Amino acid sequence: MEDVRFIWLFDDDNLPLPDAFEKLQFAYSYFGNDSNVALVSLRPGRAPYHQAALNGQNVDIRPGTFMDFKFSEWLMERTKHLAKRLHIWDSPSATATDWDFRTPLCRISIAPYGGLLFHKSWLAEIGLPMKELYLYSDDHLFSWQMQNKGGRLFLCSESRLEELEPSWPGRRSRIPVLMQPEFDECKIYCLVRNRVYLESQMAQPKWRYAASMFWFFVTVTAEALLFGAGLKTIIRRIRLVYAAIHAAHHDSFETDSAGRPILPSSIAGND
Q1: 8 A C-beta contact, residue 136 and residue 113
Q2: Is there a domain that residue 69 lies in?
Q3: Whole-angstrom Cα distance, residue 235 to residue 186?
Q4: In this structure, what DSSP letter does residue 169 have?
Q5: Which is it for strands 105-108 and 152-163: parallel, antiparallel or unpaired?
Q6: Is residue 51 exposed (0-12), middle (13-18) or buried (19+ Cβ within 10 Å)?
Q7: d(CA 115, CA 128)
Q8: What pLDDT, in 10s, does the model give residues 214-247?
Q9: Which residue, 139, 163, 187, sits at the end of a domain?
Q10: In principle, which of 20, 35, 73, 266 could form an S-S bond with 119, CB 3.0–4.6 Å?
Q11: Where is the domain boundary, 163, 179, 212?
C-alpha cells in the first residue's frame, strides 16, 4: 500500500468504459490534484446521478424525507402521470439513454462505491466502511463522511461505467418494491434498516421526518393493495419494515456466523 496513492472502487457488476479512468485523471488534474477531492464515475442507470449530470442537481440525503420519500413530491408525480394519460399536460424530459450531459463535473454529497476514486489518506481520516451496513448504504455513509470531514465529492459524468446487471430495486412492477413478494426479505430488511440508520446520522426536522414516514406507509400500502399484492404479504412486509426501523434506531446489526443479517424472530419465525 505504500506505493498506492489512490483507490478506485467498483461493485462486482460494474464495467468501466475504456476511457473512464483517463477522464477521472483529467478531472482530478483540473482540481490541482487536491487530495481532499474525491471523484465518482457516472452510472447512467442510477436516476439521481443521471439527473445530476443533466442539470447539476446535488445527490444527497434530503432533510425531512423518509427513504427519500416526500408526500408532496409523490402527489405531484401522480398528478402529472394522470394528466399525461388524460392528454391535458405534457412536457419534454431527458431519457436514460441521453448521453448529452450538460454538467461534466457536479458537486454531490453521497456516492456509490462503483466508480469512486479517492486518495488513500481518507482511510486514515474516516476509517474503513461500516461493515455492519450489509448490502446497502455503507457506500453512502462512507462518502458522506468524506464531505463531512471537509472533503469535496464530484460526479464526473464524462467517466462512465456500464451496469452488467440491473439493480434489483430497479425491476419494474406497479407494486412498490418493498411489497413485491418475490424479493428477498433479508435484502428488504437491510435496505430499510441501513437507509434509516444513515438518515438518523443527519440533522432531521423530527416532525417532518415522522410525517414523511407516516405518508410513506400510507401510500406504499395503498399502492400495494391497488395493484394486487396479497393482504398477507402486505401485513408481513409492514411488520418487516417496522422491525428494520426499530433496529436502525437501536443500532441493532446482528449477523450469523457467515456475516448474513439475522431477521428479528418475530419475522423469521412467522411464515
Answers
A1: no
A2: no
A3: 16
A4: G
A5: antiparallel
A6: middle
A7: 17
A8: 999 999 999 999 998 889 999 999 999 999 999 9
A9: 163
A10: 35
A11: 163
Which distant-in-sequence residues (6+ apart) come within 8 Å of 195 by Cβ? 67, 68, 136, 137, 248
Does 141 share its domain with 241?
no
Q: Which among 192, 200, 257 has a CA at the least distance from the CA of 220?
A: 192
Using CA atoms, how far residue 216 sits from 81, 145, 213, in Å, is: 19, 27, 5
Q: pTM of the full predicted structure?
A: 0.83
Interval 193-213 mean pLDDT: 87
Evaluate whether residue 78 is within a structural domain. no
Number of domains in the chain: 2
Q: 188 is in which domain, residue-wise?
A: 170-268
At 222 the pLDDT is 92
Query: Is residue 93 situated within a structural domain?
Result: no
CATH number of the CATH domain containing 22: 3.90.550.10
Residue (of 255, 236, 229) closest to 188 by Cα position: 236
- The DSSP 8-state label assigned to residue 24 in this structure reads H
In the numeric block, the cell 449477523 is attached to 255
